[in-house]
Amino acid sequence: DTAVAAHKLGVRTTMVTGGSGEVEPMKEACKVLDAVKIDLKGFTEDYYRKLCKGKLAPVLKTIETVRESGVWLELVHLCIPGANDGEPEIRDMCRWVKTHLGPDVPLHFTRFSPQYQMKNVPPTPFETLVRCRDIALGEGLHYVYTGNVPGIEGENTYCPRCQKVVVARHGFHVESVSLKSGHCAFCGQSIPGIWS
Q1: Are strands 144-147 and 183-184 parallel, antiparallel or unpaired?
Q2: Does the structure show a pLDDT above 90 at 36?
Q3: For the whole model, what pTM was predicted?
């Protein structure tokens, strides 16, 4: 209802979700949403069962449903040390993203901080985020980011063709944008996103 009302006023709408809902309601929601951010918490059924008290398969189906709808989609993976940050799991996840969604769906690896029921787990080392990003780029994903750590390379958007920074960020601030009508200002490559 709020998305419908917002659109009448020219306001774009976004949903943030863990992706464990049913497919049909998500299809209905996609008719009035402009973007969806889904937390892909892990990439094994064991992780989802033990830590999330849920299942991975429905989340993957939700992700595919949003992608098929044409609504802008971004994925976030909170890297929890020793729980969901192993190289095989990260590599499998990145390969699934490329195969099922394509290389242009943004994937964010974000830093975990101890709180609530996981105070006994240390914060994610910076090196882990960089390693996860490197794996994703090595698997052919174009838009891979690191989050919750201002000042490291993974904050920026790079053109997949010329590798120049097209959107420079620091923390929550955009410092510069080098795009012309959704294309790299340096080489003309189309950069997917919602730019207007």
Answers
A1: unpaired
A2: yes
A3: 0.96
